[in-house]
Amino acid sequence: MKKQQDHVKVFTRRAFVIGGIQCGILGVLGGRLAWLQVAQGSRYKTLSEKNRINLKVLAPERGQIVDRFGVPLAVNAQNFRALIVPEQTDDIEKSLRSLQETIEISEEDIQRVLKQAKKTARFVPIEIRDDLEWEDVAKVEVNLPDLPGLNIDVGERRSYPYGEATAHLIGYVAAVDKSEIGKDPLLSLPGFKIGKTGIEKRFDLDMRGVAGRADVEVNVVGREVRELRKQDSRHGKRVVLTIDGELQRFTQSRLAEQKSASAVIMDAHSGAVYALASHPSFDPNIFTSGITAAQMLELDSNPAKPFVNKAVSGQYPPASTFKMITLLAGLSEGVVTSKSTVYCKGHYTLGRDRFHCWKRGGHGWVDAREALQVSCDSYFYEMAAELGIDNIAKYAHMMGLGEKYGFELSEERAGLVPDKNWKLGQFGEKWQPGESIVASIGQGYLQATPLQLAVMTSRFVNGGYAVKPWITGGDIWDNKPPEGGWPKMDVNKFHMSVVKDGMDRVVNTRNGTAYGSRVEDPQYSFSGKTGTGQVQRITMQQRLSGVKNEELEWKSRHHALFVGYAPMNNPRYVCSVVVEHGIGGSRTAAPIAKDLLLEVQKRDPAKTPLYEPSDHVAGAGKQEEPTSL
Amino acid sequence: MSSSISLKHEQSLLERLANLNWVLFLLITAIACVGFTALYSAAGGSASPWAAKHMTRFAVAAFGMIIIAIIDIKWWYRFTWPLYFLGFFLLLVVEIMGHVGMGAQRWIDLGFIKLQPSELMKIVVVMALARYFHTATLDDMRRIPYLVIPLLIVLAPVGLVLLQPDLGTSLMIIMAGAAMFFMAGASIWLYIGGAVGVAALIPVAWHFMRDYQKQRVLTFLDPERDPLGAGYHITQSKIALGSGGVEGKGFLEGTQSRLNFLPEKQTDFIFTLWAEEFGLFGGGMLLILFGLVFMYGLWISVRGRQNYMRYLALGLSVNFSLYVFINIAMVMGLIPVVGAPLPLISYGGTSMLAAMIGFGLMMSCSIHQHTKVSR
User: Fold this and answer.
1) Which letter does DSSP use for residue A38 in this model?
2) Which stretch of DSSP H or E encloses residue A57?
3) Residue B59: other Cβ atoms inside 10 A
4) In sequence order, which residues have a C-beta less than 8 Å from that of residue A130 and are 6 or more positions away?
5) Is the pLDDT higher at B171 or at B337?
6) Chain A within 8 Å of B161 (Cβ-Cβ)?
7) Is B301 on the interface with A (CB under 8 A)?
8) Do B246 and A44 touch (CB under 8 A)?
9) Is-contact A399 A442, C-beta < 8 A?
10) Predicted-complex ipTM score
11) H or E stretch including B201?
12) A11: buried, middle or exposed (CB in 10 Å: 19+, 13-18, 0-12)?
């Protein structure tokens, strides 16, 4: 009995030990709970917020680009896509097959979708095809009950109606590079595109708009459960260009007859650019719809460099188009008068060097106007020897060469106007008198872009104003004519008229180098100056054997240049044309300039004021609300 | 003495019902209501698919519990061995079926319920040990040969459960068994020796563990090892618990659980959901409820007049508390993830059934505390 009582005592003691352990463990659990929820509570709260709220960035609509009449040059086209959500259908393949009976779907697309469906979560939509026609969309909508899991989604795609004609000017948009991703959360958005070249690049920020945001509650697999907050996006600004879209297209097609060429048409007085084209070009739409490797390789390997906008970044020796500047310098510095004459015997000798005129045998006696008309080199050689390079450079700068204008296209380049200091700084060598001789006819170190040549010509014919080129209207860019017009240049009116007379004779007088391209109708007649830029030095052997330039390989042929203006008596439109390796200015560049000047006069874009967008809607002709499907 | 009078007195049905431990019943119902609330929230504020069924099961199981409770404890005493062997037989059946069928099958489909014999086994092992130790004296308990049979009672089913393989359940049976040995008066040295033996066996056990079990242990030791894989569950559970704070996020506002960040929120991780929505107050209240149930079991046990009832009541209390400890410690990241439900709260028929059978037996011990089961 005692033993039994002992046993009960032992049991009771041990039972309470067990109870104590139970309470102890409960205490530990309670303590752990308190530690997690109180001491660590705020840390886990933050983690929990991160877990459930997903910030969704809503892409704004990109601003349009329109021409001076409001005609769209870059728009946001609707892009209809067919998507399938695997979880909404029992048999994804069956759905795809039914879709195949409705619209055209390739077998590859079906296999790709089936493959992807196995890899991704079942609620993630998979793209079957994009760029659907309206007809196809309608067909799918009608048959939707028989197509479980199928969705039509409307997205946006940048589209360039003028295609190749505006490729360099407008540029294009493409996916964001990793290096470009910055603070703007939009840039991290999948599929978001930004301007890469041209106007699209320069005004990217203006056209981009402001991202909207939506806070979305998501579950562990990332599926959206509901939207908590939403702030709509704001569309980007519309950009109005001074460009005349149709003229631009005409210019592009006119250049297309050459292997590689560029042209600028601008207003001599205001500086507004009406057309700015470079050939060869490319279709910018391939960048937004996805360029293939083969297409890219083809474009990249083209020796004529289709991606380069030669109108603003091609730098060429201005050649004989520079003679106007040399003449202006000679007249202004009193080296020559309009009446003084020079005897051209076919070459000019300075010390032991002999400089050839382009015409073997020479021009005989020529005065200032005739020197331009027949483009006599000897006349300018002799003048340059007395002028010196620094005087020539002074007038070259005055006429707008050797500088950037702060033009809207960032591809703009400055060209080059050499002088004594420049050579000393660049090569550490003294300027040689012979180099001034070469510079006088626009060769040697001199370089200018087609845009600069057009500006130079404008300044010669607009009554002496230092005009600068510009291409965007509205308040988006501040390169437009200042109040009271462009600043007057310090030049003698008579000297300018001598130069202009010379240019008239180039086109409209027998023996003028561009006489063949003249327009007989006085209403549309034009003036200008030809230029033929040497790419390679002409060797003595070639000169003696009389090798014709067209017999050389393309890369070695001369560049052909022409600058011109119209109408002849009341200049308004200025045009510059550079045909790379086009052999001769009068032969290839002048006929193009003639056609361009004729076309611009007929269209007369200057008489219509620049389009002003009254509404500030990004996509004109499009509903504000996205079409719901 | 009243006790000697009641000893001769056979209680009527009504008297037994009147003697039923209504306080314990109330505590259990309160816990089950927590389960109902949590499951309602887990379904996103809907009685289906879990909460309503859970309540129905509880009602049915409570009815069964009362029946078990009013059956005279001496009948349970007499049927202890047959029940033990029946449980063992069922365990053997699933083991064989599991080998015939595919993979690890742990249950027998009875149509209305998927019965897990291992759950029943935990109870019958406690019953069998109580039965065996009922006649043991302190001296018996100190004799090693005397302990061979009870050791077999524990280890035979443990071996079968390990084969399933279900490490969690086997450990629970071992721990419950160890508690039984302890309360019956086994020497402390046995435990020290056992602890040394277990330490020596760890490398061997490691060798026999399945890959997923090894993963769980490794992940437990270092949850950052695999934050998106096995460690993910623990991390998410901790985030859910922690973000609940003191007051909780509110009923139906538990974002972590409702947004599926929690795995198996309706079963193993139900405590997390509860504590996320009701915070430290709710979680602490639930722990106290469980604590009261344990203490009630202890109280029944120490009031018992005979060893069988003492051991059985305390053993069942320990058994129940093991479920609670393992589940809650797991969701708080204190022990590795083991597939253990929280009794009365987690959705699942077997765990509910096992818990209620346990309480029924516990109550039977209490109602029939003056009954002489033998001698």
Assistant:
1) I
2) strand A53-58
3) 12
4) A79, A80, A81, A82, A155
5) B171
6) no
7) yes
8) no
9) no
10) 0.91
11) helix B188-208
12) buried
Say which residue, A570 or B213, is predicted with more confidence: A570
Compute CA distances B206 → B19, B195, B203, B211, B333, whole Å.
49, 16, 5, 10, 21
Element (H, E) at A76: strand A72-84
CB A508 within 8 A of CB A527: yes
The residue to which tokens 């460099």 are assigned: A305
Contact assessment for residue A357 and residue A481, using Cβ atoms and an 8 Å cutoff: no
Residues of B in contact with A29 (CB under 8 A): 287, 325, 328-329, 332, 334
- The Cα of B104 is separated from the nearest Cα of chain A by a number of Å equal to 28
* Residue B176: closest C-alpha in chain A: A18
For A79-92, what is the mean pLDDT? 81
- Transcribe A159-194 into DSSP letters: E-TTGGGGHHHH--EEEPPGGG--S-GGGGSTT-EE
Name the minimum distance, in Å, from the CA of A124 to any CA of chain B: 17
Which of B137, B259, B317 is facing A3, going by the closest CB pair?
Answer: B137
Sequence-ordered list of residues with C-beta below 8 angstroms from that of B46, at least 6 positions apart, any chain: B40
Measured between beta carbons, the chain A residues lying within 8 angstroms of B275 are 33, 37
Q: Which tops the pLDDT comparison, A410 or B32? A: B32
Q: Are B31 and B344 in contact (CB under 8 A)?
A: yes
pTM of the model: 0.60
pLDDT in tens, B8-23: 467 888 888 888 999 9
Phi-psi category of A527—alpha, beta or left, where left has phi over 0 and alpha has psi -120 to 50? Answer: beta
On the question of pLDDT at B215 being above 80, the answer is no
Task: Number of A to B CB contacts under 8 A, please give it.
Answer: 139
CA gap A186, A192 in Å, rounded: 7
Structure confidence by residue, pLDDT tens digits, B277-309: 999 999 999 999 999 999 999 999 999 989 999
A259–chain B nearest CA distance, Å: 59
Which of left, alpha, beta for A277 (phi over 0: left; psi -120 to 50: alpha)? beta
Q: How far apart are CA A315 and CA A416, in angstroms?
A: 8
Q: Do A15 and B310 touch (CB under 8 A)?
A: yes
CA B271 to chain CA centroid, nearest Å: 15
Domains along the sequence of chain A with CATH: 57-80+151-240 (3.90.1310.10), 245-290+308-607 (3.40.710.10)
Contact state of A7 with B138 under an 8 Å Cβ cutoff: yes
pLDDT for the residue numbered B312: 95
pLDDT in tens, A154-213: 778 889 999 999 999 999 988 777 777 666 667 766 667 889 889 999 999 899 888 887
Q: From B301, which residue of chain A is nearest by alpha-carbon distance?
A: A15
| B298 interface with A at CB cutoff 8 Å | yes
Provide the shortest C-alpha distance from residue B224 to chain A (in Å).
15
The tokens 């051991």 sit on which residue? B311
In this structure, the number of other CB atoms found within 10 A of the CB of residue A56 comes to 15
